Protein 1
Amino acid sequence: MTATSELLLQVDRAFRTLQVRSPAPPTRFYLNLTQTCQLRCAHCITGAPEKTADGTAQNMTAAVLDALRPHLAHALYVGLTHAGEPMLAPLFVPALQAVKDARAGQPTVVHLLTNGLAMTVERLMEVTALGVNSLSISMDGMSAGSHDLLRVGSRIQQLLPRVEALAQARRDHGLALRMGLACTLHRQNVTELDALVEFAARAGLDWVKLEEMYPINPVAKAAMVDASVM
């Protein structure tokens, strides 16, 4: 049995026996590197647009990253999640490097969720070299009347060719990278889901993840899909 298998067995055993403290170290990490975002999504659940605008958005500090370093040696999964746009964080590259150094070539899923604005082909090559092997891009529709309407500051007509270029670069360079789309379901995009999935298939992506709208504010509440139409 490998050391990784033994860790997972310990975690599973602790869960099944209702242990308050696990005898094994954590193996899954979800890191919110920043609350800053260059978009102003009307349905944002983290308040990133407001925090960015008024200057209260916070970033992970070097002290926090240093405290995490010993634990990252056990990281089977690291998710750079969306309190803000991870690629804007001052510690974006240092965090990826810290995971890479700590894991020393051991198998690790490093997942990046991004709005895609800062992700060029050149940056894709950089982040995959730093260990990112799972990439999800937020896309909330196939038209300006759906995606652009809620994801203020993003333009679907710019994002579509960018996603295609990233997928093509993955093929051209043989990158060990899985790619997909994350789509928040709302009233304006329900009729575009077929087109969204067809686009993902043509581009050669690996998944389309559908997420529910949360009524965080009046705009989001009004955009929620009536279950009776599904």
Protein 2
Amino acid sequence: AVEIQRPDRVDAFTYQQLHDLAVAQASWLVASGVRPGDRCAILAHNDAHWCAVHLGILRAGATAVPLDTNYSARQVATIVRDSGSRVLFVSAKFTAVAAEALKDDPAIVIVDLHAASGTNPLAPEAQYAPSAPAVILYTSGTTSDPKGVVLTHSNLLAERDAAFKVVTVTDQDALLGVLPLFHSLAQLANLLLPFAVGARVVYLETINSTDLVRALSERQITIFCCVPQFFYL
């Protein structure tokens, strides 16, 4: 399902492993009192655990709030409070930023998204309406304060179906995903579409022209959906 290209190795995760990670995260959320409709934020770089946490949040019926990894502690605090998030999943690189951001909000739980999610009994998938919020994506805030855009489960399915009418993606494809997953295009092209058909997604630990060329050459990439600056690179 997912490969992470690192400078010295490639870490691979099968669909079974990704599924098990997502179910475990969902079960932890349910056991921790997170209910359908509750918001859970994510602050981390692209990898299989980011995907698993995102899918686990949706499985629990909660709403995912992906955060820009360039946010300052003040911006993280603003978005977490504005969204009403109860949980903030972070990778080790952003632990200090998260702690600074939420030092006055002890009720918000900070969780290492790479840590084991415990041995809670596996919770069944939550029941929720197609009109229920799935994701809140925040605008970049270049002209004013960031604003949360709510996407429902129906919105995501409609996006998926519309894209498949234009682009053919199968389980034989390998996609190179360099856009951050808090980006709306990345969530569609490098998560929803490939996972819907069983394709392979390759994320890069470091992004530069050398690693891009290496990935295109060594990972048998067949699809590269991106923004112009990366094509220029």
Protein 3
Amino acid sequence: MSPAIKPPQSLNFALFFFAYYGYVGVFSPYASLYFADKGLSAAQIGVLMSLMQVMRIFGPNLWGWVADHTRRRVQVLRLTSLAAATVFCAMFWGESFAFFFAVMVLLNLFTSAQGPLSEALMLSAMRGDLTHYGRLRLWGSVGFIAAVTVSGQLLDWYGIGLVLWISLLLLGLVAFAANGMRE
């Protein structure tokens, strides 16, 4: 039995999963602290953080439909990753609940589709041979753990405002990895 060949885009998938789940690992636990630092109430923060899950109801369905009907999954992934990074930049100017609410709706509309789209692309590239699936998907867990651990220490040293810069850096890496993918 011959050894399975890695999918041609393995590096892009590994980097994508590392950065995407790294972003989740930074933003999910620390965004609430950032919002609290901006003076939002616990109830407002709860609403903002719930938008990450609420948009998972709509985002994957919308972007999956667009990807299926245009038959351009990579372009949709590129679009959503670039849009997420662009929308995220608005976080730097936010001061009010209404502003953050609008940004979180848009941001999570774009980011909620990236996991499912990247998984579909990777499974398609593997053409039924799932030998390397676990090894590639592992990079998402590595990214999550590394981001939570490293960013937690950095935030202790430099303050909660750094969470935006770390998150934006990781969203930029997501866009970079998506840009390197092929249909």
Protein 4
Amino acid sequence: IDGLASGLGIMASVIFGGWFILNRQIEYAVLAFSLTGGLVAFMRYNLARNHEKIFLGDTGSLLIGLILAVLSMKFLLVEPIRAASIQNTPLVLIVILGVPLFDTLRVFSSRIIRKQSPFMPDRIHIHHLLTNRNPDHRRATLMIVSVNTVMVVVLSNIFSLVDSTIGTLILALAFIAYLLLCYWLIKAKANTFSGFMYKYLR
């Protein structure tokens, strides 16, 4: 949907860029912020409501994924030099890429359970579930990016205070909460709290 891949890409690249600057990895910070700048410029037209509107194709989305994959690997390999910076652990990385990873795991598992190819197109992604309740792409994008950002801020700070076992348990509980949210969106009727929420947001 409009702005989703670029919005999540901006959030992740800003976090990576800031972390690399704090840890004096300037070349990777430049790469991260270059992605940010390109995506901000793209969103200007992706969210347009007139003839200037453009879309993100396969090449664009794959490029975002490639750059974030490179930044993710470097994020795990660099030895932090500032105690105040975010811990570069796999748990924190999963949180930064939380919505895409959680959604891919859920959708692939659902398709395999239904004896379909995991690459079979359908409308069970989280953004489809949200736009089924309200077709406003901007609102759905804002909700998803905001939730992912809050996850990063809250869970990365929690992970710095607990050991990896407890952190893994917390992350598993977050994934279960995400599954329950998706189930609720699928089953909710227009006259339930879901309908009220979207009426309020409108």
